[in-house]
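dude i think i finally got it to work??
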Amino acid sequence: MLVKRKEYIEKDGVRKYIETIFKSENILKTTYFPDSQRLYISFSRGDTYSYENIDPEFYQNFENAESHGKFFYKNINKKSQYPHRKEYKLLPYEVEGLREVVENHKSEEDE
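look at this
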């Protein structure tokens, strides 16, 4: 489930990137750059990978998926048309901060 989504747009109206936080067992956060068609996915343990050739329509399908983890494993993971590499690992406090955003969202839904 998509918990939080923010688009970063320049003064001239050009969309630079989209950051999204998910309630998912596997995926914590994504950052998508439409111009370069690069998607960064931060997984539940903090490992962050980048994936190339992710066009805006495909990214929208990913965001709209019922299960983001299933969509990832079926459509992106280990597919040769989406070359990938490990970029970095989130620090423990960053992972915890993302999990808190998800927990706070759950609390808001329950009210």
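The chain has one domain: 2-110.
im so relieved honestly
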